[in-house]
Amino acid sequence: MGHSNINLAALIGSRICHDLISPIGAINNGLELLGMAGGTPGPEIDLIQESVGNASARIRFFRIAFGAAGEQMMGRAEVTSILDDLMDGGRLDVAWGPLDPQPRGDVRMAFLALQCLENAMPYGGRIEVSNDDSSWLLHGQADKLNIDEPLWNILATRDAPADLRPAQVQFALLPIIAGDASRRIVTEMSDTQVKLRF
Q: Domain span at residue 169?
């Protein structure tokens, strides 16, 4: 896939996320108004609130991971808010190490890498994200990993199979975006740990 196609796909991703976040926010506002109207909220309201919160968190994450990156910086508070909301109640714990604002393009690659690690950790675990001046490291630890080697090979070869599923698109997209940024993906795995550097 050419660089221009990646940019077009990113713009489409940004547009979809932008258009979806408004009605989800409106639903959340409606739920707040219902709560202010009095009465005891039932389990159905709790379920709707939980679902709306989850959808909002995913859209915010996807907007960074699959949307157009731009040149702006992202502060730690914004990134950790997205990750905390996304992982709330899940099996994965993600620790975002960088304290300083980071370029949105780097955060985008980190989010895509995070999805790759998440794929390998279906039973839960902990992922630590760190960076220095020249590289990023995502270090996942879990009691049990599920490594799909053909998927992980895409990160090195940049050769995605034609039957790649939508849930696996991060494995095809990350090495292309990293290559455009003159970075190379390096992975290291053991029975309980998986590391991804770029």
A: 72-198
